[in-house]
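Here is one record:
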Amino acid sequence: MRILVAPDSFKGSLTSVEVATAIAAGWLAARPDDEVLLAPLADGGEGTLVAIAAAGGWEWRHTEVRGPDFVPVLARWLVSPDRGRAVIEMATASGLSLIAPNERNTSIFTTMGTGELLKAAIDEGVRDITLGIGGSATTDGAAGILTVLGAVIRGEDGEPSVALPTPPVAINLLGTASVDLSGLDRRLGETSLRIACDVTNPLLGPNGAAAVYGPQKGATPNDVEVLDMALAAYADALEAAAGRRERETPGAGAAGGTGFGLLCLTDRFRSLELVPGIDVVMDAADFAGKLASVDLVITGEGRIDRQTAFGKTALGVAQRAHTAGVACIAVGGGVEPDGIEALRPLGAVVVPVVERPQSIEEAMAAGEDPLRRCGERMARLVSIIR
């Protein structure tokens, strides 16, 4: 048999490369004569860079930027050998994983570091940039990014209300009266930006950036209400300056409104589009080409649950396998009935990795061994009928 192993990362535990390698090793332990192809994936969030780099043809860059809490971080990004293309992962500069759980307070975090990565790529001559915006710690509507790129956010008195030492963070957007885009970096007009985004939320309201994602970033119920008001004031001003209404555009609420802020700059770039993160990584990994030649595809992620139905990697792989008529197995570090039901119509079978009752912390600390054993179990099951 020819097997394609195409998982996402197990967040906080293993990269998609490590997951794919472990499953493949287990499979080959039971069926050494099979051919196993690897296509590590991601959905635009944390792990996107590693998955794309695994496909080959990229060089690593490291740039010191301001983290979400303004503490300097050394963020990685990718550039093509001809300096024509770059891939940036927001999580490396403005990511939630950069902040200890007991210190998360999205109201006072910034996306400036992501803006500094964009500027670093442009400074190097890159004019075709892919930006993955999953996994952010922020809810500033890309105010930090826009500030780095030359925008000025002003209050009622006409003075800059968000300019260092008053930082571009969510809570400081409450007094926004206008946004001046006249100072934006002129090189944006030469630059194409693809934003890899795996959610479809609007900017505001009960399904918006603050309400849906704020709590996991440290926002209290009162914080959520204030953040939504701050983003509304900012949206009024930015939309007026840009001449575009983007607050309801699917994906505007992604990464704390980063989708919205960048969408408002569409006319300032040579081109700008929001695309599903999974599609970006699949293209880089030649997923379609590999899928066409295999008998079975194995995907997976840390949890297969109700969120799986809203565009996560396992669903994307299962949909493509179903269309191609290829059998699909999805492994999950944790599995819930809603996740099983989300994949059932596509003919995908869900297999849990866990081998005994244990806490999430124990499962995450177990490393690659359970995945290897899971890969071996699946191979032995296949051997019963082949």
About this structure: The domain at 2-41+285-385 is CATH 3.40.50.10350 (Rossmann fold). The radius of gyration is 21 Å.
